């Protein structure tokens, strides 16, 4: 059986003491195993990173950018193979897997412009004969702890900027679907990067803790559930690291009475059920404003949801595939049952869905639940599956308050033709990323990604200029070139620019 080993310089050492199973979500069968690493594996990776990073940082930025350009070309050349590999372990359909890779490449493209964005500030004549300038320098070694739901995009979101500014980087991907991050690291090496600049280690909590505690790792980026994000943030900061930790979400879609409901239904089907709902920017809650809007929306949603095609990940006609594991399928179906117990109306029930010939696959049918209220535990928590809940709001004010008061604040969307309502909503809602007639408002790579409240811990977002700032430290230089005529009489006085 195929073994996914660590991608570290010099090999991972002795045979792994622990192995994790990698399943085929379409069939419910083990298809490979992954080596679960320990402190010794991480130490080898860190030592290789320490050896490679100074030379990589000393390379001028346009030469680092050329490596990223070649990496981008190699990923594009291998897109089909990467997408099928990703799909085989995650379960998302191949077209969605290609999108996963492409959104990661968008950040690689941004990082190719690193010579421009690394330029510092300069003030000539800040004082008599005094000039001041700043420079951004790498932290040294960074690490990324990435989730199962975007095994290509999120690693590239992290390492593209981190290595572009001159750091070495260590990825700890999800042990559920680790093959694509390893392949990306191989392609990065093929693109011309020195050995040790980008490495991959595998593992569970033992490896996570080793990363958070390692004194040579200066910064950690994490994406996952909020409870673990809080843990990662707290432990990493306690160890003196810079940490950004992105957590869960419960994104809302506000539907105003004037919205184009046909377009809204189309957007909701993609945003709520695409990738089996396993996205932190999925849209699992729709909030129609007014009972008339709610009834009209429900009437249009039911046939659209019932027409969704659930299939294996290689089915080109499928709208979405299986969820990632049997445990996750049980969790999602448990939340559906919980919502019904709490009083939600199961309009379309996706539990018990099976696919002929793939009866052991981890499939969950599309589910629609109406009359959900903010008091329900199933509304308060992230389901992370193909489940859409309808929470009815009596007016605009209530619609604004629902996402604003929720524990998560990742993304939100409003559907309307009214520019004033959209502007007011975007200004007032207590959420980090807002879409106006855009169901999944993930910013482009040269902007920045990050939520509020329990959706993010730390004060710096991912990619864009926020990513550059996170992975660098700023140094400010104040310089004077005296002409030799000074008498040194003010040598013991604090300098001023007067």
Brief description of this entry?
The protein is α/β, with parallel strands linked by helices.
Blueprint of the fold:
Elements: E1 2-4, E2 19-24, E3 29-35, H1 39-58, H2 61-77, H3 79-90, H4 94-111, H5 114-117, E4 122-127, E5 130-138, E6 141-145, H6 153-164, E7 168-172, H7 179-190, E8 198-200, H8 205-213, E9 219-223, H9 226-238, E10 242-246, E11 252-255, H10 261-273, E12 285-288, H11 291-306, H12 326-341, E13 345-348, E14 367-370, H13 377-380, E15 387-390, H14 396-405, E16 408-409, E17 411-415, H15 419-428, E18 433-436, E19 452-453, E20 456-457, H16 464-470, E21 472-480
Parallel strand pairs: 1-3, 6-7, 6-9, 7-8, 9-10, 11-12, 11-17, 12-15, 14-15, 17-18
Antiparallel strand pairs: 2-3, 4-5, 5-21, 10-20, 13-14, 16-19
Helix pairs in contact: 2-4, 2-7, 3-4, 4-6, 10-11
Q: Radius of gyration, Cα only, in angstroms? A: 25 Å
CATH class call of the largest domain: Alpha Beta
Largest sheet: 7 strands, mixed
Query: CA-to-CA gap between the ends?
Result: 73 Å
What is the fourth-level CATH superfamily of the largest domain? Aldehyde Dehydrogenase, Chain A, domain 1
Beta-strand residue fraction = 15-25%
Total beta strand runs: 21
Q: Order of strands across the biggest sheet?
A: 13-14-15-12-11-17-18
The helix content, as a percent range, equals 25-40%
Can you tell me the CATH topology of the largest domain? Aldehyde Dehydrogenase, Chain A, domain 1
Tally of helical runs: 16
Provide the domain count. Answer: 2
Given helix and strand content, the structural type is alpha/beta
Which regions contain 5 or more consecutive residues with pLDDT less than 50? none
CATH-defined architecture of the largest domain: 3-Layer(aba) Sandwich
- Mean pLDDT score: 95
Question: In one word, what is the shape?
Answer: globular
